[in-house]
Amino acid sequence: MALRPVDDSDLDALFEQMRDPESVRMAAFTAKDPDDRTASMPTW
């Protein structure tokens, strides 16, 4: 397995994963509003 840098084309999928309700419930650190894409994307 090899990791690669994140491409702009990956961002839609990453955003959807980060706003998944079950993932948000289990995560230790989340955005204040998981549906706010502008606030979530500076991470990437």
Question: Can you describe what's shown?
Answer:
The protein is mostly helical and 44 residues long. It contains three helices and no strands. It is globular, with a radius of gyration of 11 Å.
Quick take:
The protein is mostly helical and 44 residues long. The chain has helices at 11-18, 21-26, 37-40. Helices cover 41% and strands 0% of the residues.
Please supply descriptive tags for the structure shown above:
44 residues, mainly alpha, 41% helix, globular
Helix-strand blueprint:
Elements: H1 11-18, H2 21-26, H3 37-40
Mean of pLDDT: 86
Helix-strand string: HHH
Number of DSSP strand runs: 0
Write down the Rg: 11 Å
Shape: globular
The largest sheet is: none
Number of helices: 3
Termini Cα gap = 21 Å
The portion of residues assigned to helices is: 40-55%
What are the low-pLDDT stretches, counting only 5+ consecutive residues below 50?
none
Strand proportion, as a percent range, falls in under 5%
Q: Structural class, from secondary structure content?
A: mainly alpha
